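Structure first, sequence second, as always.
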């Protein structure tokens, strides 16, 4: 497993340090997006700044994307295989459950192309659907 994680980091141009491998392993085991605070709970003895820098490095290199789900803290999720975080191709819908407060990526549901006037240059877009997830509605 660790070797696979090392390869994944190297493919994205990220040096595989011990902390980066641990954070990637933690993210790989998540069904929902996680916040910096969520990761702090997993790595109790770790420095918050180190975790933040790790997430930012992952984001800058296209390994994770951040989600603004309206809770006040960004959440992070691994990008799908082949994702380049390209605004025209890779943006997808997210779902935030108001009961369990988890945020899920829905990569099969793409954000539709928005034809902006020529003088507007899109840099990011975010579509979060809020409601009750399948676990909570059962």
């Amino acid at each position: 497993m660790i070797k696979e994680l090392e390869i994944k980091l190297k493919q994205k141009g990220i040096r595989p340090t011990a902390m980066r491998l641990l954070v990637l392993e933690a993210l790989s085991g998540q069904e929902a997006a996680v916040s910096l605070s969520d990761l702090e709970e997993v790595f109790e003895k770790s420095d918050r700044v180190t975790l933040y820098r790790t997430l930012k490095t992952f984001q800058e290199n296209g390994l994770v994307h951040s989600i603004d789900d309206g809770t006040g803290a960004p959440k992070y999720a691994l990008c799908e295989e082949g994702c380049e975080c390209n605004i025209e191709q890779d943006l997808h819908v997210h779902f935030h459950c108001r009961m369990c407060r988890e945020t899920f990526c829905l990569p099969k549901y793409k954000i539709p192309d928005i034809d902006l006037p020529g003088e507007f240059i899109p840099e990011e877009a975010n579509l979060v659907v809020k409601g009750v997830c399948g676990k909570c509605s059962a």
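Margin note: The domain at 2-137 is CATH 1.10.10.10 (Arc Repressor Mutant, subunit A).
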